[in-house]
């Protein structure tokens, strides 16, 4: 296998942000949003129980006062997959749209789990997770990128030459799969990239 450069998104790909923030939001607003109701990446569009204003207010509280990014659970197979990629001699970049206030907690968390090549951590920047990843993907000559955000998938499929994988969620099912490969687990992603067993 030739040496490649992998670009990896954090939330929704490596970490179960969705359920951690869902439980936070349910507790804070005394509501009961279930995972199957999250059919839009912008939850307030698919739930009547949360307004846009409440959503972003709690999103920031979760990350700042709550230090939610320190303690997110890993998604199954993420760390094992990253280690395999690393051991096969490939380069890894972590590119996230987390808000900048999450930087220290993110560094802490990647360190605690022993993520390979965790020094290659980049925040795309931009308010409310709306930074751009394509410029970084081009700058680092990333060959393969995996993400789950519909906005990011649309951006990077049109603005980079990387091979794109979309981690399947209800909120990205509306995307046209022509320009990327949809995967529903790390297992599927690794197999598609030629790693066996
Ligand atoms: Mg994500």
What does this structure look like?
The protein is of the alpha/beta class. The chain folds into 2 domains: 5-15 and 73-192, Rossmann fold (3-Layer(aba) Sandwich), CATH 3.40.50; 17-70. It is built from 7 helices and 6 strands. The protein has a 6-stranded parallel sheet, sandwiched between helices. Strand 4, helix 6 (150-159) and strand 5 (163-167) form a beta-alpha-beta unit. The longest helix has 13 residues, at 17-29. The protein is globular. The chain starts with a strand and ends in a 5-residue tail after the last helix. The protein binds magnesium ion. Magnesium ion binds next to loops.
Query: Which strands sit side by side, in order, in the main sheet?
Result: 3-2-1-4-5-6
Label the structural class: alpha/beta
* Helix and strand run: EHHHEHEHEHEEH
Stretches with pLDDT under 50, minimum 5 residues: none
Bound molecules: magnesium ion
State the name of the first-level CATH class of the largest domain.
Alpha Beta
In CATH, what is the homologous superfamily of the largest domain?
A: HAD superfamily/HAD-like
From the 3D coordinates, which CATH architecture of the largest domain would you assign? 3-Layer(aba) Sandwich
